[in-house]
């Protein structure tokens, strides 16, 4: 775990990191006493994301993002929307309407679509999205963080039996803001792209595994939980990266991006890329979206567990040797029709065009 680039410590287990939290459902929201800009709200309109901001004396006081937003109606100074709150816990709306001199809404911080007095349906608790509180088991803090984590004077003065295994030690009071990394079996730290933990420490007690280890309770859950289905391949990857290609194909679609994050973390940027002119192969039976394609292409170029990009922009930026391949190259896409059927004609053709624009010749084959 790291805070501002400094290692906080390591732990054997993070209880609460793996949890099955449902995706936010589509909800209905109402903007009240609206002053639209340029006729906004007069027709159905869909937006990937919008931000609601409040201001006090012209100073921004709060912001709340909504996703998958659609204008569904407008009348009598009210605009009706459907949308979803953010899935990340720390970006979800507050439970109560924040104070301020009204709201503005826009697709970014500069563009205003509408100003309004208040909103219904956004600011409330959603218990179904609560993440379980986190406990760090067998946590070995770095000395500098141990000094911040516990009240050493009170701990030293306590009766021995009061600080034994399972007993709480005096706490200095601390908020933990840290990213989460994995420790591979070869000792390397893997940047898992997890945004980490933002929570207050509520209890610290000696841990059972050994001296110098602590169990640390936090008052909130992880910023970004992982589905429980990701636990087996997460553990196995930290023990040993895949030795056979295609391990991602057995995962549910929503878990494949987690597999890709581990491939990204394990990628060695110090290894020279393959020379241009190579030929690579992908199996279209397992490619139903861009994430699948990134998994397949990464392994085609760099072998089992290989990585070449997180999305198409990332792939395009890595076709210079920094992730194994240098264009031009040839990509043989076996059973391409299966991918076309799964993705849809337009997304499939967009992918072919992307490869062509990046000097990759695609040969589509049938099985």
UniProtKB/TrEMBL annotation:
Give the matching SUPFAM superfamilies. Barstar-related (SSF52038)
- Domain (Barstar (barnase inhibitor)) ranges: 279-357
Per the UniProt record, one Pfam family is Barstar
According to its UniProt record, which protein family does this protein belong to?
Belongs to the barstar family.
Task: Indicate what this protein is called per its UniProt record.
Answer: Barstar (Barnase inhibitor)
Native source species:
Actinoplanes derwentensis
């Amino acid at each position: 775990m790291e805070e501002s680039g400094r290692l906080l410590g390591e732990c054997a287990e993070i209880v609460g990191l793996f949890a099955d939290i449902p995706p936010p459902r589509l909800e209905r929201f109402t903007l009240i006493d609206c002053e639209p800009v340029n006729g906004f709200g007069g027709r159905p309109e869909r937006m990937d994301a919008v931000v609601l901001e409040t201001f006090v004396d012209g100073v921004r006081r709060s912001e709340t993002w909504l996703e998958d937003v659609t204008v569904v109606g407008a009348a009598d100074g009210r605009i009706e929307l459907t949308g979803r709150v953010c899935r990340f816990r720390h970006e979800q709306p507050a439970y109560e309407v924040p104070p301020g001199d009204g709201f503005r809404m826009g697709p970014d911080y500069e563009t205003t679509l509408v100003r309004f007095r208040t909103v219904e349906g956004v600011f409330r608790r959603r218990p179904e999205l609560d993440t379980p509180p986190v406990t760090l088991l067998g946590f070995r803090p770095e000395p500098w963080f141990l000094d911040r984590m516990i009240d050493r004077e009170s701990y030293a003065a306590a009766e021995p039996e009061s600080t034994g295994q399972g007993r709480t030690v005096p706490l200095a009071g601390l908020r933990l803001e840290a990213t989460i990394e994995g420790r591979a079996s070869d000792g390397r730290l893997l940047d898992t792209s997890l945004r980490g933990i933002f929570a207050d420490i509520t209890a610290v007690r000696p841990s059972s595994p050994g001296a110098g280890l602590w169990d640390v309770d936090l008052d909130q859950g992880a910023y970004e939980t992982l589905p429980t289905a990701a636990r087996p391949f997460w553990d196995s990857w930290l023990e040993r990266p895949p030795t056979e290609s295609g391990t991602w194909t057995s995962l549910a679609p929503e878990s494949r991006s987690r597999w890709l994050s581990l491939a990204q973390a394990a990628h060695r940027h110090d290894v020279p890329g393959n020379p241009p002119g190579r030929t690579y192969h992908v199996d279209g039976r397992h490619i139903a979206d861009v994430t699948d394609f990134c998994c397949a292409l990464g392994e085609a170029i760099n072998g089992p567990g290989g990585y070449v990009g997180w999305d198409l922009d990332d792939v395009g930026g890595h076709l210079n040797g920094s992730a194994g391949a240098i264009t031009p190259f040839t990509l043989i896409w076996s059973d391409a029709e299966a991918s076309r059927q799964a993705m849809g004609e337009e997304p499939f053709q967009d992918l072919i065009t992307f490869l062509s624009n990046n000097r990759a010749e695609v040969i589509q084959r049938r099985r």
